[in-house]
# Entry
Amino acid sequence: MAESSIPEVNMRSPTELQAIDRATRKLLTMHHTHHPKAAVEGLYLPRCKGGRGLIELESLYKRTTCEVARFIERKQGRLISILRERDALKKSHSIQGDATRSRNALHLDDDCDTKDVKTADQVQREARWKEKPLHGQHPKIMDKPSIDSDVSYNWLKKELLNAETESNILAIQDQCIRTRNYEKHILKLDVEDRCRCCALCAHDHPTSGSPLEHRSWLQLHQVLNPLRT
# Structure
């Protein structure tokens, strides 16, 4: 096979992939599948971590590029040598160059595999989620040793609710729905943010020590329990 017969691969830039991801999120919002104020990080985290389980193109590109670069580095042969030489001549978006940038951003070594890249990317995404002053309160609460995250996210893993209901519940968890707590701490309005039923702070009733946890919340869980069977 002649060198000229090897087709050129048109690599998309990260900016183009980010634009496609934004367009996807816009469609999800238009169809009420993703709340416009909910955390973007939650969309791409697995459901067992409290996310929606979508695949982000930019992250997929990073994993694929790192795996292809690893394959090229390890394999030998005339065609592989030609591919390696052609890739080295590219001024931008070469396989090796993009893979190196992706590994450096994720603090990984050159011998990492797809699983390592996926895990590191997920860890960084969770960290960004927790760093947010408003949206990050829920994942921080879920890290408490007294909370079983596997059981708490069981409803997400079973996917029994429709997409709109699911997005609304997650938006409430992200505390981006306009509640009294949101008005006081985010909008800085002069309002009382205590619960009208128990007179305690109401933004995290399901995971707090509120008296409602043993009454209203227990009744709510009993109603939802048949959905989990």
User: Anything to note?
Assistant: Residues 3-147 form one domain.
